[in-house]
Design brief:
The protein has 79 residues and is of the alpha+beta class. It has helices at residues 5-13, 25-35, and strands at 50-51, 56-59, 65-69, 73-76. Strands 1-2-3-4 form a 4-stranded antiparallel sheet, covered by helices on one side. It starts with a helix and ends with a strand.
């Protein structure tokens, strides 16, 4: 279930200042990675979504970064 209570708890576990937004493309991509077969776990968010010159990005506890832009959608920046 997208935007579940468990996801909310996980999303804010590393840093309760990281906002949980179930409508965020970055969250939806993180959820899709976690639900893939086989699942790809990139950890918990450790930064807020940060606006860049080309879109948005967010860092995760594994060192992974998800980028989002209107042109390419969400993708692993370093995956």
């Amino acid at each position: 279930m997208i935007g579940s209570y468990i996801d909310h708890v996980l999303w804010t576990a590393a840093d309760d200042a990281v906002a949980f937004n179930p409508d965020s493309a970055i969250y939806k991509y993180w959820r899709a990675l976690k639900s893939a077969d086989p699942p790809q776990f990139i950890g918990l968010p450790v930064t807020p979504e940060i606006e860049t010159e080309v879109g948005w990005q967010q860092g995760f506890s594994s060192g992974a970064v998800i980028n989002w832009s209107a042109d390419s959608g969400a993708e692993l920046a370093n995956g």
